[in-house]
Amino acid sequence: MKLYCLALTFILSIATMAANAQNKLKGTVYEGSGSTRISDVFVHDLTNKQMTLTDKNGNFEIQAAPGHMVVFSAPTYGADTVYITDLSNKKIRLSPQGIQLNTVNISSTRKTFDPQTEYPEVYEKSKVYALSPSTWFSREGRNARRLKKYFKREVQEREIDQAFNPRFVSTVVPLKGEDLENFMTLYRPKYDDIKSGDQQSLTVYINDAYKKYQALPPEKRSPQSLEQ
């Protein structure tokens, strides 16, 4: 009887693994219409609440099924929501998104992001328990720890957005329109530059950046020209 139970458990485990494998959605995320792959894209199945990130090669794998809605999002890119009709390999393309200069007050239009409240399961799964070493090596645990780091970066990026916003920057430097957008893209501060919340220090940073911007030849004052 005991042997029968063990055999039944083994068969059920194999069946579960096979079913899970059949419900995996795989694919790659690219930038625009080109061949550049995007890493650390947040992939979120709104139907079953599963989530993951693309790897360094832009590849992703997530549990999903036909009829599900999956959102792909990343900083500086427009998000894309995909309705899943089948589980064939997907090519997802995200368009680069510039700074929105018509956003007058970023802090009032962007929702405060509290990942521990919105995604508590990620923080629970990311824990490593001394009596359960498998929590460190499991795929689910590794994925949760990657997501936790991603959420930390996202919180910091939003804080940068709130401090380094078009309305404030335009009061420090005499730039408007596309010139302001290019300047803010080229000289976006790091989190360490704004985390103190000291507006005077940020003003000094912006003025120093503007001097560097002015020293560039006109044809180099855009992100695209510097990449060439």
State which percent range the strand residues make up: 5-15%
Largest sheet, strands/sense/barrel: 4 strands, antiparallel
- Multimeric organization: single chain
Principal-axis shape equals globular
Percent range of helical residues: 40-55%
Span of the ends, CA to CA:
71 Å
Total E-strand runs: 7
Structural notes for this entry:
It is a single chain. The protein is an alpha+beta fold and 228 residues long. The protein folds into 2 domains: 24-94, Immunoglobulin-like (Sandwich); 106-227, no CATH class. The protein contains 11 helices and 7 strands. It has helices at residues 2-22, 106-109, 115-118, 120-125, 134-137, 139-163, 166-172, 177-186, 191-194, 199-215, 223-227; strands at residues 24-31, 42-45, 51-53, 59-63, 69-73, 80-83, 90-94. The strands form 2 sheets. The chain has a 4-stranded antiparallel β-sheet, with helices on one face. Strands 4-1-7 form a 3-stranded mixed β-sheet. The longest helix has 25 residues, at 139-163. It starts with a helix and ends with a helix.
